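anyone seen this seq b4? input:
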Amino acid sequence: MKHFTLILAFIATTALSITSSAQTTLTTAVDFTITDLEGNSHNLFDYLDAGQYVCIDFYAYWCGPCQATAPEFTNVYHQYGCNDGEVTFLSIEYEGSDAQPHDFEVAWAGDNPPPTASGIEGLGGAVHSSYGIGAFPTYILINPGGQIVEQDIWPMDASILDDVLQSYNLSYMSCTNSVEESVLEFAVYPVPATDFVNVELADTGASIELINILGATVITTVATEYRTQLDVSALEVGSYFVRITEQGAVRTQAIQIVR
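predicted toks r here
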């Protein structure tokens, strides 16, 4: 479940919201043209007419879950060719000026993220309105025929999004102009969790954070052994993200805590 943000009060960086199962209200794509932070123009139907699938991250610069999933979207963007392959990835922000999504990308999205359009100068806010986006983040997939074949990819991490794209027989491709990424391998279990979450890494020294659905870090530690156990017995049930950071590589995994 994500947080419904059609009506939002933002007080001292805390979003007040109610829960809803969020998705675009559309099943057929509406054309749009946006301008990314580099000044490049992107027209949806141009990509579709060229036979591309288009995967869109609808987000807000102040949104905690958007921060947690942004590096995952970047990882899959690299995995499928940095928009030179069969899938075009676009990030469309809700209401910020160019400076705010820029700061978001620098802080959260990792190296060489997908093209991003701000809500104001980039015209992203109008696209949010036309697609009926009421919660952040909302990830959708549009096929070359203009059908929105995935209205809400959630929960979302790199492995989940990769599985979705693979179900449409889309091919991996190396980026031709991206920096080389560090590969960070880890395992998180059990999923769902009750009292404890185990994080296994190939090496020690990584930063481990547990982040709630509002983007607040509720547990933070550094891995001193190959397996780190997080005590979640005092936390409320619901959705969380495990974020691992090591030598510039950032990965997250969505988990559920149940009782």
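The first helix runs from residue 44 to 49. The chain is about 20% helix and 35% strand. kinda curious what u guys think
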